[in-house]
Amino acid sequence: MLAIISLFTISSNYAFSQEVGLATYQETAQIIIDKSISQNVTTSITLQSTSIQEIKISAELEQKIRENKRIEAVIVTNEKQCVLGVVEESCIIINVERNPEIRGIFAIQDETKEVAEQYIDEINQMFDTDAKFHSVYVHSNDEANSALETSGVISGKGAISAVYTMAMEDTNSMYEKISAILIPKVIRDSDGFYNIAKNLSFEDNSKMTFSLIPLDSKSLLQLKLSVNYPNKASAITQVSPLELLKIENIKRSDYFSSGFYPLNSIIQVVILSPENTNISNVKGNIVPSQIIDGERIPTDITKNGWVFDPQEGQMIQGKYIFGEKISIDKEELKFSLGGSELQSEKIELDEEIIVVVIITIVAIAAALFYLKGYKK
Question: What is the spatial distance between Cα 265 and Cα 321, in angstroms, rounded to a whole number?
């Protein structure tokens, strides 16, 4: 009994000494190297929160959308082709769950439009836009969602979208306008990933997307700036995330300076390959980790470095955490594809860090990356 009490005391002291926090605001830098489907490289910065104080939308509108259980997502984007049939126009898309009692494509389209019409005027007012009804689109292709293991809420087979279109706007001016509406000044003035996105908005092939995904008691709000580099994936054998993001080092937002929030700034790299490949020649650190409930979890979130899960195969994911560091240099993030396999570290989980691991599991569950979708 004394031993158990002593162990619990050590565990608790270790955990609380880390002062681990998880803020509702999160910033993610993501690089997708698609050697399997499109052959493109896509870089993106996502700012997300479940707080309407950190991504500001009308409380009344958010509640109205969330309480209608058939609304799956609201998306504002300037993608060149938001759905088939829309070219060179920006879009507001309202995804509606299909009513199984409605049969026939025309009846489905009419009923979906009827649901979406309840919200479009308020959405236009919030974003100072004038989007007009274009069409109702039933998504039939699920190839990308299957490969990337996305949730299918934004797109994917079976999703039904009421599409409203407006004049195409260049990404820089649209991102400047939308971020000024959505992102509070305290976050915009805190540097971090927001500034990276702002700079990337000047790139050719850059696009922005805002999405609202209703959950049970709140909504997941995301502002995403992405840049597509066509036909660049096949030539990549050494991955340098910051070169693809056009920066020499990456700095966390000062918004987190009041505490220790190691899982609120994440760098994620995804490699899709038509054949098995592996990670090698990692320049920076590999964070000690172990697999819990099928997810590879870092066992010491005070350390900065990569967690690769899996480390080999046709889809590889690498997640970089900052630990106690504020910024990371370009060289620390480089690694290669192929070559000598990355040696997995065998972790003997000491009892004194069990409490920290539990905290980490909870935090990572709340900080799941946009690529995999938001899991309740």
Answer: 7
Cβ-based neighbours of 103, under 8 Å, separated by 6 or more: none
Q: Which residues contact 287 (CB under 8 A, 6 or more apart)?
A: 298, 299, 300, 301, 303, 304, 305, 306, 307, 321, 323
- Token reading at 370: 């946009």
pLDDT in tens, 188-222: 999 999 999 999 999 999 999 999 999 988 999 99
C-alpha distances in Å from residue 151, one per residue of 20, 97, 107, 329, 375: 29, 14, 26, 33, 8
* Cα 213 from Cα 190, distance rounded (Å): 26
Structure-token match 């900052």, residue found? 322
Task: Output the average pLDDT for the chain.
Answer: 83
C-alpha to C-alpha distance for 231 and 130, rounded to whole angstroms: 35
- Residue 27 pairs in a beta bridge with 47, 265
CA–CA gap between residue 92 and residue 85 (Å, rounded): 14
Query: What sign does the CA torsion over 359, 308, 199, 38 have?
Result: negative
Give strand ranges (E) for the chain: 26-34, 41-49, 71-77, 89-96, 132-138, 160-167, 206-214, 219-229, 238-239, 249-251, 265-280, 289-292, 295-298, 305-308, 312-321, 327-329, 335-337
